[in-house]
Amino acid sequence: MDIEQLSHELKYENKWMKVYEDKIKRRDDTAGIYGVVEKPEFFLIIPFDGENVYLVEQYRYPLKVRTLEFPQGGMEKKDEDSLAGAVRELREETGLSAGFIKEIGSIYTAVGFSNQTGHVFFAKELIQGTDDKDAEESDLIVKKVSVAEFEKMIERNEIKDSGTLSAWCLAKAKKFVH
User: Fold this and answer.
1) pTM for the structure as a whole
2) Is the pLDDT of residue 136 over 80?
3) How crowded is residue 130: how many other Cβ atoms within 10 Å of its Cβ?
4) Closest listed residue to residue 104, CA positions, set 58, 139, 70, 64
5) Which terminus in the chain has less CB density within 10 A, N or C?
6) How confident is the model at residue 134 (pLDDT cuts 50, 70, 90)?
7) What angle do CA 41, 42, 43 make, to 5 degrees?
8) How large a percentage of the chain has pLDDT more than 70?
9) Is 44 exposed, middle or buried (0-12, 13-18, 19+ CB in 10 A)?
């Protein structure tokens, strides 16, 4: 075993996360600690209408900036199905529903300190409806952007969300977009 966990102590908890301090022993018998952020799985959706993607812009408090990213959100119930969660998040944040939605892979967001896994979905055949944002999302703005402009935004380093960048790479590698 590379690292042996000696203790796992809860230091902080809220409805979105738990923060632990783990005492560990490495393979060479040296001791150490890890701060571990435990978060539920999340769903990230690439809404695509054939020419455009839909992004959400929102204020991210830890960074003190507004970011552009694909719609995404956490599992709300322990046994929530990934597809049902993706459909829910897409509708809540954008008001969109999809005639076609498929999980195309999974990603890790912060491998150095968190156990969170994200499920990446590709959605097309989009139909606009009404959103159902949470209080934390009240400032969220939906932006429809051409694929060409989205890729220029990536090139200009305007898209910085790691999940959005990873999901786009996954969609391109799997030939969902060109």
Assistant:
1) 0.91
2) no
3) 6
4) 70
5) C
6) confident
7) 140
8) 100
9) buried
Residue 1 tokens read as 């075993």
Tokens of 67: 């970011």
Residues with Cβ within 8 Å of residue 135, at least 6 apart in sequence: none
Sequence-distant (≥ 6) Cβ neighbours of residue 12 within 8 angstroms: 18, 19
Is 134 strand, coil or helix? coil
List residues bridging with 108 in a β-sheet: 117
Whether 70 and 52 have beta carbons less than 8 Å apart is answered as no
Least Cα distance to 123 among 145, 97, 149 occurs for 97
Q: What's the rounded Cα separation, in Å, for the pair 79 and 76?
A: 9
CA distance 20 to 113: 10
The residue behind tokens 């896994």 is 117
Where are the strands (E) in the chain, listed by range?
3-13, 18-26, 31-38, 42-47, 52-60, 65-69, 72-74, 96-108, 117-128, 141-146
